[in-house]
């Protein structure tokens, strides 16, 4: 029961911080405004992204909304039903981070048909595509999940024995 409460709090944290950061950017910036945070390396740059994570575009925003809903519902079902069980507390927490990030961006797509992005990193003209906290949560969650599945799953222990 305690773990479920912690997972719920982590989910609420990921969605809330994502949405609050986007609301702050939308309130204090004009579209395409950019402000340096750490020199030219880290800036806040307000853009709206009709495509997928990191500016990848798959076409019509309605298609993106449908795909986002489908993937989020499928992941949620698989996780809650136990069909996708990373086996460890850290693995399950990474799944919650992935789901929280997916829901954060889904809220934007439902509300506006696109996603607010604002984290802009790089050196000079060599920039990473602008992203948001939801993208961070999904990316970090996937990395942690992969590490957990490779190094800490029961099947990897069977191979070592």
Quick synopsis:
This protein is 61% helix and 15% strand.
Strand line-up in the sheet with most strands? 1-2-3-4
Gap from first CA to last CA: 33 Å
Radius of gyration: 17 Å
Overall, the morphology is globular
Unreliable stretches (pLDDT < 50, length at least 5) are 156-161
Largest sheet properties: 4 strands, antiparallel
How would you characterize the overall build of this protein?
- The protein is α+β, with helices and mostly antiparallel strands.
- The protein has one domain (2-155).
- Helices cover 61% and strands 15% of the residues.
- A four-stranded antiparallel sheet has the order 1-2-3-4.
- α3 runs antiparallel to α4.
- The relative contact order is 0.18.
Question: Characteristics of this structure?
Answer:
single chain; 161 residues; alpha+beta; 4-stranded antiparallel sheet; 5 helices; 4 strands; disordered C terminus
List the helices and strands and how they pair.
Elements: H1 2-28, E1 34-38, E2 42-49, H2 61-81, H3 89-112, E3 115-123, E4 126-127, H4 133-152, H5 154-160
Antiparallel strand pairs: 1-2, 2-3, 3-4
């Amino acid at each position: 029961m305690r773990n479920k409460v912690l997972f719920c709090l982590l989910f609420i944290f990921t969605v809330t911080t994502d949405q609050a950061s986007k609301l702050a950017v939308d309130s204090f910036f004009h579209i395409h405004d950019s402000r340096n945070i750490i020199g030219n390396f880290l800036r806040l740059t307000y853009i709206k992204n009709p495509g997928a994570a990191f500016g990848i575009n798959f076409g019509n925003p309605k298609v993106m909304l449908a795909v986002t809903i489908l993937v989020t519902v499928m992941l949620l079902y698989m996780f809650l039903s136990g069909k996708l069980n990373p086996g460890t507390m850290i693995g399950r927490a990474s799944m919650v981070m992935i789901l929280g990030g997916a829901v954060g961006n889904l809220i934007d797509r439902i509300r506006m048909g696109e996603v607010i992005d604002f984290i802009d990193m790089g050196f000079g003209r060599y920039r990473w595509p602008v992203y948001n906290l939801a993208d961070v949560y999904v990316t970090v969650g996937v990395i942690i999940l992969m590490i957990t599945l490779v190094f800490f799953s029961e099947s990897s222990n069977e191979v070592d024995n």
